[in-house]
């Protein structure tokens, strides 16, 4: 058969998209799941009984002793991540600070709220030892200097720390435990994408569960 320009155009317009659709539709788990880097971190309810990681997608940050010095990262997190995901179900930010920093936190909240609906921001006071114990349960390669780290951490609905195991910028075994709030590029290129992957993972699991229910109903089970 002679390959003509017309046949090539027809292939690109009709046949190729159909092949792509068939490939995509035949796999039920053909997407990449976001790796678990630490299982079963301490639940935030240990610090505040009214809050929990369970059944939520949580971003956790540690404000530290010098909130004024470090606040740029929290503004980045608010602008580049929070405002995008505020309407996603069960999405929350947990910001943990030492109990003697209430005045500084009130100022930070006021500054952020000037541009933002704060409904899913949760500022929780804790004792220094409580903060250290919670952070240590993440089992990261990060340091908590003066109760602060520039990294924000992604916790899934089961209380597991999610991240990356083949991060091209990581110098330790390719593992990425947290995302640098001081880097707009990292928030945009990594954290934003990883949150979307996690939500799609839940969507795919929900869809698969409903398909199984429908199949069981059809066969009378």
Automatic annotation (TrEMBL):
Superkingdom classification of source: Bacteria
Protein name (Swiss-Prot/TrEMBL): Membrane or secreted protein
Biological source species: Polaribacter haliotis
């Amino acid at each position: 058969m002679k390959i003509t320009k017309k046949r090539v155009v027809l292939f690109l317009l009709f046949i190729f998209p159909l092949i792509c659709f068939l490939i995509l539709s035949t796999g039920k788990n053909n997407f990449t799941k976001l790796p678990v880097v630490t299982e079963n971190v301490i639940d935030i309810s240990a610090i505040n009984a009214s809050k929990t990681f369970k059944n939520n997608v949580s971003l956790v940050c540690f404000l530290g002793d010098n909130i004024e010095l470090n606040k740029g990262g929290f503004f980045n997190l608010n602008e580049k991540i929070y405002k995008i995901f505020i309407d996603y179900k069960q999405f929350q930010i947990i910001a943990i600070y030492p109990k003697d920093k209430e005045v500084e936190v009130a100022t930070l909240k006021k500054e952020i709220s000037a541009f933002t609906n704060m409904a899913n921001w949760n500022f929780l006071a804790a004792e220094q030892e409580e903060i250290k114990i919670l952070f240590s349960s993440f089992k990261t390669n990060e340091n908590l200097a003066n109760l602060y780290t520039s990294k924000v951490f992604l916790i899934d609905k089961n209380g597991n720390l999610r991240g990356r195991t083949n991060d091209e910028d990581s110098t330790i075994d390719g593992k990425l435990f947290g995302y640098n709030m001081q880097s707009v590029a990292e928030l945009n290129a990594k954290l934003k994408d990883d949150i979307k992957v996690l939500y799609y993972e839940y969507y795919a699991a929900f869809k698969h569960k409903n398909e199984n229910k429908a199949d069981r109903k059809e066969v009378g089970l």
